[in-house]
Amino acid sequence: MDSSVYVFVEDLRDEGVDAVLDRITDLGVAGVTVAAAVHQTTDVTPHGTSRIILRHDGVHFPPPPDLFGRLSPPLQPGADDKILDDLRAACRARGLAFHGWAVFLRNPTLGAAHPEVTVRNCFGDRGAPADLCPANPDVRAYAVGLARAVARQGVDSVVADSLHFAAFGADRSYIPLGPMDAFLLGLCFCHHCLLRATQLGVNAEVAREECARIVGGVLDGDPPAQGQVTRAALTAYAGPEVVAYARARSETVTSLVAEVSAAVTEEGSQLTFMDATGALKGAADGLPTAGLSAHDAWQIGVDLVALGDLVPSFAVLAYARDATRIADDLAAYSRSVGKDRELRAVLRPGMPDIEGWGERRRDVDSTERLAAKVRAAKAAGAAGVDFFAYGLVSRKVLSRIDGALSG
Predict the structure, then answer these.
(1) 134 within 8 A of 140, measured Cβ to Cβ
(2) Is residue 242 packed enough to be buried (19+ CB in 10 Å), middle (13-18) or exposed (0-12)?
(3) 136 vs 116, 122, 178, 251, CA distance in Å?
């Protein structure tokens, strides 16, 4: 079974490329998936020289200027030191696969500089500066350029993160929005989204008005919707035009992914599409909400059946404590994309997916839990398992990987 460990460039600078690869090789994995293009986060790094790292938006290599137009990726500090070249050469010398992970449409730096390319809600607000709209032509050109740029780093695959719409989020809300209300507030009604939906036969303005009426009512004191977001429940709550509008978003994402996948193939690599639904469901506590990820991916514009005809490989964020849930999720993905597509399960080897927050377990129990997930993923059709992430967990947690792969 294929395998890799996700690493950040800061890990490589901190510990040295050879030292990191020595430890990864000792874990028994077959490759490295490096964060070539990331979005800003603040991370606790337990075994780094710096125990808190502020990561910035942008790429860890000089972006070829011929690939970008109005939108160009920010340059990471130290991007000119060619550390990805060093990592690629070291991986080749050791026989390790070399994959490039890139965050595409989540970029608060670009969004702040160009708010007109971000999503716009039913009230006309551009309240999500991190979320670039996949219907916007400049954003689409940027995504294709970024894909080509990462592929030109000599990677075996480009792992595409956030190449779809984002879910609604707010730092503070004292209004009790239900899941369906939040979904409606997260729909993008920018000019380009409205135009694409209209071209597909949707009465886009009616859909926008219905969303504004329903969410506006909740903000004014109406009770929030109860229950999870399903197409049937959404039809009953918001009407068929809203559901049709939500379906139209899938065409936007599918056509963009098709362009990106073709560009990566032209550059001599292949695309691995990462669907964020598993993280939206289980990232916080490893206890994903009801509904399998493959069945709910449509909520962020991901049509897995359509993408199965376009993309050779899929990364499934298996953020769950329960091995059975992971098996069920992967089996559902396999049925959607087709059994001839590569599936890769992304596992977290520590909290909160192995131990819950504050829970203490014996090392042998934790390793067996991880091994059970590896076995479940393989039994459900996964061709590979990838572990997230080298610099974010302790060395003690990393050591479980070897036992999990051999168990």
Answers:
(1) yes
(2) buried
(3) 9, 17, 29, 13
Give the N- to C-terminal CA distance of the chain in Å, as an integer.
12
What is the pLDDT at residue 355?
Answer: 82
Closest to 133 measured CA to CA, from 141, 150, 278, 66 = 141
Q: Report pLDDT digits (tens) over 54-72.
A: 999 999 999 998 999 999 9
- How distant, in Å, are the alpha carbons of 57, 100, 102, 130, 277 from that of 107? 6, 17, 11, 5, 18
What is the distance between the alpha carbons of residues 257 and 280, in angstroms, rounded to a whole number? 20
C-alpha 371 chain-centroid distance: 24
Residues 6+ apart with CB under 8 A from 312: 261, 270, 271, 272, 341, 342
Question: Which tokens sit at 87?
Answer: 């990592």
Residues 253 and 193: beta-carbon distance below 8 Å: no
Tens digit of each residue's pLDDT (9 = 90 or more) over 143-159:
999 999 999 999 999 99
Q: What is the pLDDT of residue 361?
A: 67
* Alpha-carbon separation of residue 117 from 139, 252, 305, 346 (angstroms): 7, 15, 28, 30
Q: Token digits for 39? A: 């979005």
Give residue 130's identity as a one-letter amino acid code. A
Query: 51 Cβ partners below 8 Å, 6+ apart?
Result: 44, 45
What pTM does this model have?
0.97
pLDDT band at 357 (very low <50, low <70, confident <90, very high): confident
Measured N-to-C along each axis, helices 17-26 and 83-94 cross at an angle, to the nearest 10 degrees, of: 40
Residue 154, CB-side half-sphere exposure with 13 Å CA sphere: 13
DSSP 292-350: -HHHHGGGGT--HHHHHTT-SEEEEE---S-HHHHHHHHHHHHHHH-TTSEEEEEE-SS
Rounded Cα–Cα distance for residues 372 and 359 (Å): 19
**What is the Cα–Cα distance from 124 to 287, expressed in whole angstroms?**
34
